[in-house]
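pasting input
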Amino acid sequence: MSDAAAAPNVLVVDDELQIRRFLRSGFELDGYSVSEAENGREAIRAATLRPTDLIILDLALPDLDGSQVLERIRSWSNVPIIILSVKSSEMEKVRLFELGADDYVTKPFGMAELLARSKVVLRRKARATTGDSVIRIDRLRIDLAARNVFVEDERLTLTPKEYRLLQILAQYPGNVVTHQELLKEIWGLPHINDTHYLRIVVRKLRQKIESEPNHPRILLTELGVGYRLAPPNEPSDAQAS
Amino acid sequence: MSRMRLLPQKTNQWLRAAAQPGGIVGVLGALVLVAATTLLLEAVKGFLDLPPVVITYLIPVLIAAIRWGLVSAMVATLAGAASAAFFFYRPIHTFYVEDPARRLGLLLFAVVATVAAYLAVRMRREAEIVRRREKEISDLYAFSRRLAGGHSTSDIFDAIEKHLATVVGRRVALFEPRGPSGRSEPIGESDVPQKVRETVAAVIAGRADGAASTAIADEHGNHWLVRAVSPKTPDLGVVAIDLGMQTPESEQEIRARIEAVLFDAASTIEKIGLAHAITEVRMRAESERFRDALIGSVSHELRTPLASILGAATVLCNAPAVAGDARLASLANVVRDESERLNNEIQNLLDATRITGEALQPKLEWAEVPDIVNAAVERRRIRFGSHAVEIDLPGETPLIQVDAVLIEKALGQLLTNAAKYSPPGSRITIRGWREGETLALAVSDEGAGLTADDSAHLGERFFRGRRHVQTTPGSGLGFWIANAFVTANGGTIEAISAGEDKGTTVTMRLPIPANVEQLESISSE
């Protein structure tokens, strides 16, 4: 793992030379140092040999399936992994999130979008290593240690299910948690298909934490996949409040 | 008519004829009627001066003629004359008639009764023919309506099968020569024995003669008749008719009738150009399949290089060297925006292929309407440019059970159209409301509106308004895709415009499940 002050290392895995080229330029212009792999085996080797902060992984690789690469790397490392794919099927996304992908970007995409998402997953990892138990998103403050939730310093009364939902999402703010995972965690396996339970709790929670529940800014929907929290505020804002 | 053949050559044939209306039932019926008339006359003769007795016997004769036919009427005539002679004409209780005038009267009665019976029978037969014609015509009308509504050869064969079943009056299974599965399957869900299927396959393959009908008995002793609908070609299908358990003799008869009916049906089918219609439908389906396969693979092949172009363009746009030079920056922006557009067109083609490829199976899940609306707006934020997008949803909308991703795409198509066909800076409004058992979502713009011609063709694939073909780029797929996606989710879609340049409002209506209130009442404790 590299020093926090140094340029983050990103490993770009894609068999298309042209894609690797623009990803390299895009990341380098944004201050990353880039290494490349053009197939699955090379990617796994590179991830073990070099300190890597972020992996951009294309799903269609000539030797291994991208999801296999994801699974192998996840077996020893929790390095953030963003999946690239020309397929935009929600079922595929759900599967990959459950295998441990941090984000999913459909090809074609703009560099700005990928950079923004990379920043979110990197910040999440940084926060995880500092072990901060307070998360601030917009006007919401979640204190995971004290199990308290505040909106602009006013303490909210949440039902156990509402708090549980927020807690699961807050463990990886910015990360999508799938419907099935949430249902399994909160209601248990028998209710894994009762999406309406989830919708109702989300609706009630939004009424408490969002200023416009019909236009949420904190608890966001990933249509057909799951929910995520908006990226947390920058640490500097956190200190200020 | 079979009831006319009363001279039996074989006992079983005679029995069969007798079992038909006008057979033994007719004879017995005639005798009962005559007996009843006699009793009636006997009862009243004590206190009334009898009218010419023999005339009264015309009543059972006419009833028998109308009810059972000529044979029965003749029996009634003879019985009537005999009863009159036996019970009412002196000497009573003998068949001998003393009075010559009465003898003449009896003779006249026989003649009049025969003529009247004959006329009655003919009238009845004509009425029957008219009734049958009427039914045939209404059957044929229903048949041609079903044909006109058929979109695929299966629809057409389904219609033929129903038509044949109606005219033959038996269980009929029609086999399409080259069904969608490539094999010969019966059209309906009828269970046809294996042996019959084999014969059908042989006829279709040309190994057996389709013109001559083949009779087969299955393992339960049921007889089936197999033949091509048209003796000229198996293209109109091969039909298997369940004759049930029949003796060989009766089978002969039914077979003759079925042959006649099939002959009529085949010539009708040929007359209405069915063979042509079938070929046409089949060719259309083939070419659509081919086109969709082509579009599918082409769009996939196009997307891969496009990903590099778009990605590289976005890197260029933000690179300091380019961003610092206004001219270069604007060029880089052109590359980026146009590849975005190309990407959307490819996405539309892919969506269109999914629709025609019948791969469109909505994954129904409970969804929040605001989530769908927000996603649709968010995803197209850049394309709205200077348009003001306004969302107007009620405080709480009921949950709906839809494929949220498909509805989001449909709504996105409507938003894209609204932005495309309305001037920059104008307002686009998304409104949602509950309308009884449906949830309505409307997208309104202040743009080009629809002409009567536009409205008439709006639902068609690749349709583009005449005013826009030259000025606004597009493929004419957007509304068509939106329509298909909404329909697949059990909803409807409707476009209304006050006229040219008066804006358009497109409203989609999605069903609200009946049990939604109950589901929503669960607590979040």
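fyi The radius of gyration of chain A is 19 Å.
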